[in-house]
Amino acid sequence: MFGSDKEKGSIEMVIAMVLSGTIGYFVVNAEQSYWNVVFLRCVIGALCLAGYVLATKQLTKEILKGPVFITILLGGITLVGNWVLLFASFEHIPFSIAIIAYHLQPLMLVLLSAVLYRQYPSKTILLWLTIAVVGLWLVIGIPYQEIVAVIFAQGSNQAVFGLLLALGAAFLYTITTLMTKKVSQVPSGVVAVIQILFGGLFLLPWVDFNHFPETSASWGNILFLGVVNTGFMYVIMYDAFQRLSTTLIAILSFIYPVVALLVDFMAFDHTVSLLQMMGIVLILVAVSAVKFDWQLGKLVRTPKQKIPSPQKLE
Q1: Nearest 5°: phi and psi at 81?
Q2: Residue 80 region, left (φ>0) first, then alpha (ψ -120 to 50), else beta?
Q3: How many CB atoms lie within 10 A of CB 300?
Q4: What positions does the domain EamA occupy (predicted)?
Q5: Is the residue at 54 inside a domain?
Q6: Mean pLDDT, to the nearest integer, of 131-155?
């Protein structure tokens, strides 16, 4: 069905990022605290993943031994830490600025891979990543002056602390991605169920059991988050992590904010400005360029002029 691991992984990553872009819609409509939403998402997702792993007989004793299990567990710690730091950053800086900082994660992934594994990106890749970041900036729609004002607010270090929390969340998510790639021999469903189950246990102290959803609509949103946006999404996303290069994972991650903006527009009637549309175009161009290996030299190549052959002397 798929021509190669890269093709399958790319399709899985695109689907996962599209689903990620819809998470905000279901979180808002669940009408629950962030902690309750994440906890219920972990519990429902873990149950679905456990059923999937058992039905497909992916769990073996070898997976639960030695450094492989430790690596998976460490990835779970960084995954949960990423959620905690990101949600904590919302209390110190505007949501939109936190999202900008958090979505610098693709750049962190490329840079950290270069340091740890000597997977140095080419100048062309760095250029497309830069274009994607500029597109992200335009999509979020925050003026540069406002960001500077938040960071250097007089008499308060709250903004700087919040920004560091968001960047810390992005860094931990980068570690999770690299940890998942490191255990590529383990089925993605097994990796996901261990990490998400651990996440649910870690979040127990912050859960408000007295204010769980009371309406079928709220439970419907929670169930979709758990079954589709966690159970299904993490299987295909982790499988994509194990199949793709860090560069391709990084660039495809920019699909997430584009989908989030479109969902915001369609579901909540938020207008999309011309600059935001330009940002979407820049991101999609950058994604296509890396996916299809566009080379700038070929794109701007000028036709060679033919040198006229010397006339024969009679």
Answers
A1: -60, -35
A2: alpha
A3: 7
A4: 11-140, 161-288
A5: yes
A6: 70
Helices (H), 105-232: 105-117, 123-140, 144-151, 158-182, 188-202, 216-226
Give the type of residue at 207.
V
The pLDDT confidence band at residue 309, using thresholds 50, 70 and 90, is low
Distances (CA, A) of 146 to 152, 155, 194: 10, 17, 41
Domain range enclosing 190: 5-294
Task: Tell me what the mean pLDDT of segment 220-236 comes to.
Answer: 94
Q: Is residue 153 part of a domain?
A: yes
| Neighbour count for residue 118 (Cβ, 10 Å) | 7
Domain count, the chain: 1
- What are the C-alpha distances in Å from 148 to residues 130, 143, 163, 202, 270? 20, 9, 11, 35, 25
- Would 33 be classed as within a structural domain? yes
Written as one letter, the residue type at 85 is L
The Cα–Cα gap between 269 and 217 comes to: 20
Report the alpha-carbon distance of residue 47 to residue 40 in Å, rounded.
11
Q: Are 139 and 181 in contact (CB under 8 A)?
A: no
Task: Look up tokens 């007089």; give the residue.
Answer: 154
